[in-house]
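Propose amino acids for all 344 sites.
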């Protein structure tokens, strides 16, 4: 049997290559993919050749931590499939189970049961492709530690930004404000529970937001800002919108791009804190009570409540994957979540 794999062969180029599947080892299983999700953030940096070549693609994922960011390479971390075969040392009851895996895009993949997450009851496979990004959203919210009555801003309403907004909408906040340049994303943010959605490119809308935040009064400005645009320049806007002792959580990955920060004004005087957040690890102060299992359980519960499958805008056959990347690269305003579908 041949396995069809997606390879990034050079910047702005992906190819579907066929490789024969190797025999299963006794402790392994063979998974046939149903869906995989394309990340419009980190994965597009890979597609555009903006990942530092001297670093591993992801040290937190077994499928990627040994792979350097140099072409040609495989990438992807949100695959859902069904187990077709099991090795001799694997319980046969695994066969037929629907599973999620942090695996690159491919029609089939071989792994061990320990690297798979079995889909809970009442979670359909299309919703399950959001597990990785929902876990990211859970980790971002934990790192931001939103408090009762706080004013919270989410810069960027891509998939992760929308999921963060949806989770935060369940907190007793003083206000939840979403910013994005794309009108459709602002509309979805309101649907998911944001109190206000603004275009950061609009001077009047930013002025209205600042007035709502009451910058001139005690407690003015945002208590907590999430920077999820993927654009380094957005950090200066995050600083500008933060109030005294405000917290900025950076969930974006900028790849090789650097940030030109303005630290001489309100950042310095307002004692603003910048927090780095990354889903591969948990904040040290939380490790005693939060592990991967608890985060997955919370993420599945959020998936049940948010129903993120409604955020899928395009379902594209795996054989046409190149069109999916071109769409995300050239027309990001027309695509939110693009899913690759696998057919026999």
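Proposal:
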């Amino acid at each position: 049997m041949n396995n069809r794999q997606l390879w990034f062969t050079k910047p702005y180029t992906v190819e579907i290559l066929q490789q024969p599947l190797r025999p299963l080892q006794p402790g392994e299983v063979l998974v046939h993919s149903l869906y995989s999700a394309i990340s419009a953030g980190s994965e597009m940096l890979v597609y555009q050749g903006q990942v530092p070549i001297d670093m591993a693609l992801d040290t937190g994922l077994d499928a990627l931590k040994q792979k350097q960011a140099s072409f040609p390479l495989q990438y992807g971390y949100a695959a859902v499939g069904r187990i077709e075969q099991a090795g001799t040392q694997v319980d046969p009851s695994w066969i037929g189970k629907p599973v999620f895996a942090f695996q690159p895009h491919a029609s089939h993949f071989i792994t061990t049961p320990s690297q798979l997450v079995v889909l809970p009851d009442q979670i359909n496979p299309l919703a399950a492709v959001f597990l990785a990004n929902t876990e990211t959203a859970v980790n971002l919210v934990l790192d931001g530690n939103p408090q009762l009555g706080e004013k919270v801003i989410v810069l960027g309403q891509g998939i992760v930004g929308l999921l963060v907004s949806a989770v935060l909408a369940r907190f007793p906040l003083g206000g939840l404000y979403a910013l994005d340049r794309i009108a459709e994303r602002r509309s979805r943010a309101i649907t998911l529970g944001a109190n206000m959605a603004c275009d950061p490119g609009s001077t009047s809308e930013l002025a209205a937001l600042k007035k709502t935040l009451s910058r001139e009064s005690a407690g003015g400005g945002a208590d907590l800002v999430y920077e999820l645009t993927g654009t380094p320049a957005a950090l200066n806007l995050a600083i500008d919108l933060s109030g005294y002792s405000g917290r900025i959580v950076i969930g974006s990955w900028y790849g090789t791009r650097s940030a030109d920060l303005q630290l001489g004004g309100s950042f310095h005087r307002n004692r603003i804190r910048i927090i780095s957040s990354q889903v591969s690890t948990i904040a040290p102060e939380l490790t005693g009570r939060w592990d991967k299992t608890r985060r997955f359980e919370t993420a599945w519960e959020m998936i049940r409540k948010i129903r993120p499958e409604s955020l899928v805008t395009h379902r594209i056959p795996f054989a046409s994957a190149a069109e999916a990347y071109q769409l995300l690269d050239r027309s990001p305003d027309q695509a939110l979540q693009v899913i690759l579908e696998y057919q026999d």
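The mean pLDDT is 92. DSSP finds ten helices and 15 strands in the chain.
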